[in-house]
């Protein structure tokens, strides 16, 4: 019997899923008629480890009460479930086995919600890209999750250098996406230079960064992927110096105005 099930753009409402009690992986992407009531049947799927509810637009906070009962759940994607709020995140138990959560464009989530997520002691990967109400206060909450290794803050436009000082406490961090975090400056990169495990860094459209910030990146000796597109204050010379230092760098993205 298959332990995986994928449904998309369907009219399923959750009926019948309860019979698949050995299911481990369930994708219900774009199933826009599924509601909180339909998801109640998932509480019987106690072997479920991966659940993708991306763009199931009728799902709201009540659904998270059901999901909190799934004791083996490791991966949860609620991208563009725009009715999810901080109140829903409060019901997720601290003992949850969930190690990866995606809340892309769940724009009702604020710093209060991040404080709730910081109680998920197994969390390693967090995507809150497009949650533009999140500020530095929320990142301070995350700083206690020492096992976090992947954080996506793309278009969290209120994040500043103060928040990056909090992220610098995450010494296991390998992947960090700060694309379009336009308040980030060289001071923030100086804080990030202590992240010795960092392998992937996206600074696209962080257009307050200058050559001094690029010099800070030379300390990231394990860096493999770096995106500096639309960082228009950067010039060629510091980039070339950085390239001579970062021996593991395999991918570098620059704007066309910078010729290497």
UniProtKB/TrEMBL annotation:
Q: Which GO terms describe its cellular component?
A: SCF ubiquitin ligase complex
Question: What sections of the protein cross the membrane?
Answer: none
Keyword Kinase carried by entry: yes
Q: Which Pfam families match?
A: LRR_14
Q: Name one GO molecular function term.
A: kinase activity
Q: Please state every residue range assigned to the domain named Disease resistance R13L4/SHOC-2-like LRR.
A: 39-254
GO terms for biological process?
SCF-dependent proteasomal ubiquitin-dependent protein catabolic process
Keywords annotated in UniProt: Kinase, Receptor, Repeat, Transferase
Q: What is this protein called?
A: Receptor-type protein kinase, putative
């Amino acid at each position: 019997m298959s332990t995986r099930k994928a449904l998309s753009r369907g009219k399923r409402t959750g009926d019948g899923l309860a019979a698949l009690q050995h299911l481990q992986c369930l994708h219900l992407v774009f199933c826009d008629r599924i509601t909180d009531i339909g998801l109640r049947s998932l509480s019987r799927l106690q072997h479920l480890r991966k659940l993708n509810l991306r763009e199931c637009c009728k799902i709201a906070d009540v659904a998270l009460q059901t999901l909190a009962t799934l004791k083996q759940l490791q991966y949860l994607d609620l991208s563009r479930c725009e009715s999810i709020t901080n109140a829903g995140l409060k019901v997720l138990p601290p003992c949850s086995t969930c190690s990866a959560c995606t809340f892309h464009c769940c724009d009702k989530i604020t710093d209060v919600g991040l404080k709730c997520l910081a109680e998920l002691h197994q969390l390693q990967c967090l995507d809150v890209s497009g949650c533009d109400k999140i500020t530095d206060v929320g990142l301070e909450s995350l700083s206690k999750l020492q096992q976090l290794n992947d954080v996506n803050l793309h278009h969290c436009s209120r994040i500043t250098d103060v928040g990056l000082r909090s992220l610098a406490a995450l010494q296991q961090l390998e992947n960090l996406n700060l694309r379009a975090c336009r308040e980030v400056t060289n001071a923030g990169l100086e804080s990030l230079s202590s992240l010795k495990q960092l392998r992937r860094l996206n600074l696209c459209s962080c257009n307050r960064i200058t050559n001094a910030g690029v010099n800070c990146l030379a300390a990231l000796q394990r860096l493999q992927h770096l995106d500096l597109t639309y960082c228009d204050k950067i010039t060629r010379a510091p980039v070339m110096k950085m390239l001579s230092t970062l021996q593991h760098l395999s991918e570098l993205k620059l704007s066309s105005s910078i010729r290497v």
